[in-house]
Amino acid sequence: MSDRTFAHAMLREIYEQPDALARTMEQYVADGCIQMKALTDAAECFRKHKDLVIAASGSSRHAGLAAEIMLEDASGLSVDVEYASEYITRSTNTKRDPAVLVISQSGETADTLAALREARQRKHPTLAVTNVEHSSMANEADLYLPTHAGVERAIPATKSFTAQLLVLRLLSLEAADARGTIDANEMQRQLAELWEIPPMIERQLDGWRETTERLASGYSSAKTLLYLGRGIHYPIAREGALKLKESSYMHAEGYPAGELKHGPNALVSDEVPIVALATVDWQDAESVLRYEKTVALLSDLKAQGARTIVLGNSGDGKLREVATDLIEIEPANEYLLPIMEVIPLQLFAYYMALENGVDVDRPRNLVKAVVQE
Questions:
Q1: Model confidence over 194-230: pLDDT tens digits?
Q2: Could you give the CA distance from residue 360 to residue 367 in angstroms, rounded to a whole number?
Q3: CB of 340 within 8 A of CB of 197?
Q4: Residue 322 belongs to what domain range?
Q5: Using one digit for the tens of pLDDT, what is the confidence trace for 33-72?
Q6: Together in a domain, 264 and 350
Q7: Measured between alpha carbons, how far is 82 from 177 in angstroms, rounded to an integer?
């Protein structure tokens, strides 16, 4: 990537994601084992506490929603994800004794920092996932889990978000080990699959860029877009919608795919296209079930004349039959697919912004770190 030139920091940082993820893996994993001390120290926390509260805002909260599924499925922890701004104003009398995990790119986000301090006031053990080593959250949390994404200059989060997903996946595996729900062989297999993600992204980036640039020119006149996903892909649908809003000033909303017919379907028209996440892990029975339900929904949407951009596995013939446009993604583990599938959504938001004449690195009314409520 070093010989490339980019018109905007956002595009450059999208392309930096393979390096950022590989760098993060190198800091956490060696000789087929998790070696990062803060992560291994987290095991003791998960042995003592069966409940975890995640507090975050914006993109970081979407990473937290994905982490909820990773952690519950892998380890059996009971996880709640709070808006950081809500955490400090409720549950002050709860009898629960959870660990509290905060997530923030900058480590200075005002709402999230206040949530961390409230958790410490309540005597809960605290963990912080941030991208800035000497930030307030890194210094004040009991355990600090760095993302190693590198400096991120564009306001829309890209490489910091995927690095958060990676660290949270590692945390879920460590929690599984601590709670006895994964054996050594499976742990090694899961870590080996994580190592494959950076090169998988690297070889797909140019194709995603070409496809999303073409799609942006065809969808830039949309009135609004609805992003749909199921399971762990629902948080990525929300993140894709947020990226579009903050980058291009276009309206978008993320919904669970199964909720479309409970009201939002009334909006669907030629001016309101659908972006649907329909990747699948054929080794995961629940992933297959979600996929089949999404294919059925897309078939219904085609019958009603909807325009759809669908993210699906490479070579998926079923999706080609029901999608207006298809963005192909190499198959992977269900819990790793989100790290890849969010990247074409980032690129789509970038090119939609260019279509609308937006300075994508500095969208109006937004700052990189919200340090004041």
A1: 999 999 999 999 999 999 999 999 999 998 999 999 9
A2: 12
A3: yes
A4: 197-355
A5: 998 888 888 888 888 888 999 999 999 999 999 999 999 9
A6: yes
A7: 25
What is the SS3 assignment for 147?
coil
In a domain, 58, yes or no: yes
How far apart are the C-alpha atoms of 166 and 197, rounded to whole Å?
Answer: 10
Is 77 within 8 Å of 52 (Cβ atoms)? yes
Q: How many domains does the chain have?
A: 2
Output the CA–CA distances (angstroms, integers) from residue 278 to 44, 230, 239, 258, 352, in the order listed.
37, 8, 15, 13, 22
What percent of the chain is predicted at pLDDT more than 70? 95
Cα dist from 2 to 6, 12, 47, 200, whole Å: 11, 10, 44, 18
Pairing of the two strands 224-229 and 251-256: parallel
Residue type at position 1: M
Q: How far apart are CA 99 and CA 123, in angstroms?
A: 9
Q: Which helix (H) or strand (E) holds 193?
A: helix 184-219
Of 122, 148, 182, which one is at a domain's C-terminal end? 182
Average pLDDT in the 23-38 region? 91
Taking only Cα atoms into account, the Rg of the chain, rounded to an integer number of angstroms, comes to: 20
Helices (runs of H) and strands (runs of E) counted in the chain: 13, 12
Contacts of 359 (CB under 8 A, 6+ apart): none
Residue type, 240: G
Does residue 311 carry a pLDDT above 90?
Answer: yes
Question: How far, CA to CA in Å, does 174 sit from each of 132, 204, 235?
Answer: 22, 29, 22
Q: 328-373, pLDDT tens digit by residue?
A: 999 999 999 999 999 999 999 999 999 999 988 877 655 544 445 5
**pTM for the predicted model, two decimal places:** 0.95
- The upper half-sphere exposure of residue 347, i.e. CA atoms within 13 Å in the direction of its Cβ, equals 26
CATH number of the domain bearing residue 274: 3.40.50.10490
Scanning the structure block, which residue is given the tokens 């922890």?
A: 77
CA of 199: how far to CAs of 20, 23, 76, 133, 341, in Å?
A: 12, 12, 31, 26, 14
Pair 133, 122: CB distance under 8 Å: no
First to last CA, the chain: 38
What's the CA gap between 225 and 201, in Å, rounded? 25
